[in-house]
Every structure is written in C-alpha cells, then in structure tokens.
Amino acid sequence: MTNYLSDMETKKCFKCGVVKPLSEFYKHPRMEDGHLNKCKECTKKDAKTRYNILSTDKNWLEKERVRNREKFKRLGYKDKFKRIRKICPLESNISRRLRNRGYDTKGKEAHHWNYNLPYSIFLLSRKAHRCIHQFINVNYLDKYCYTMDGKKIDTVEKAISVFSSILKSNGINEELKVLNISL
After folding, report:
1. Across the chain, what does the average pLDDT equal?
2. Domain of residue 41, residue span
3. Rounded to two decimals, what is the model's pTM?
4. Domain for residue 48, yes or no?
5. Could you tell me if 99 and 143 lie in one domain?
6. Interval 8-32: pLDDT, tens
7. Three-class SS of residue 38?
8. Which of 9, 27, 93, 137 has its CA 20 to 30 A from that of 179?
9. CA atoms within 13 A on the CB side of 48
10. Total number of domains in the chain
11. What Cα–Cα distance (Å) separates residue 91 from each residue in 34, 141, 154, 177, 182?
C-alpha cells in the first residue's frame, strides 16, 4: 500500500511552486478543481503585503473605515461591544480622559494591558492595536490579557515585552509607553 496523495488530493502552488494537499488551498467555486491556484500561506502573505502598501494611502484608509463602519452595523457588532462595556464600565470614557489631559488621540486607540487597572493604558495606532489583539486573548472574567500560549500578562514589564515582540515580528515599529490617567 502506498503512502502518498494522489494528484486529485494535491495541487502545486503557482506562487511558491510547492506541491501541497488541497486543504492548504482556499476553496474557490470558479476554479476547475474548486480551489485557488495559490496556497493559503502565499495568499496570506500577498494580502498582508497589499494591505501594508494600501494603508499608506489616506484615501484608501478613509474608504476602508467607511466600509468597516457599515460592516460593523450590518453584522450587529454594536451589541457585542455594549456587553464589554457592561463588564468594564470604566473604560468607556478613556479617549475623553486622554483628550482632556492634552493627548492627541486622532488615529490612535487606548489599549488596556490589564482591565483591573482601567486607567493604565498604552496609546497606540489603530494598526498596532489591532495587531496586538490578533496575538492575545482577553479574559473578561478575571480581566487579564493572555498570550496565545496561555501566559498571563500581569505586570507592565511583561506587557511591554510581549507587545513589543508582537509588533516587531509584524514589522510595526512603535514605541510602547504606559500612561496612567487616573483622576
């Protein structure tokens, strides 16, 4: 008995040239075999490269923001974030507090590294904030952030270390500085 995949179960990626199982290709109804000719890994790299190029264009960014606001409403995300605000009510006025203290919040977002300390935050670009949240989990029961491998981020030093490595590995060069904006 042979231990290989037949031609029907594999496909060669035109981008990287590697023969991979069909499960490594996104489905596409218009393709002859029902899958794209570019593997998932190459597709993700191309999408990331395209986004990095387009995100430097202010017109494209504004159109993307409008599109995402429409998607936010259409998919009912508003109710999801209301639930988070009920769990963490002190976080709802962070941007106002920052502006009142003279911080420029245009194009920036406050990132809570620990929801038990609601006024201890990082002020980050939207891109950096989104990037960090791709690689951490927030447990709203104990109000701590966790790395994907389950390590609790319970000190400022750990937060800076973890978030810096996430940003650096994704090509985002942004300084991390903790702001304490209580009273």
Report:
1. 85
2. 14-53
3. 0.56
4. yes
5. yes
6. 689 999 999 999 999 999 999 999 8
7. strand
8. 137
9. 10
10. 3
11. 46, 15, 18, 18, 11
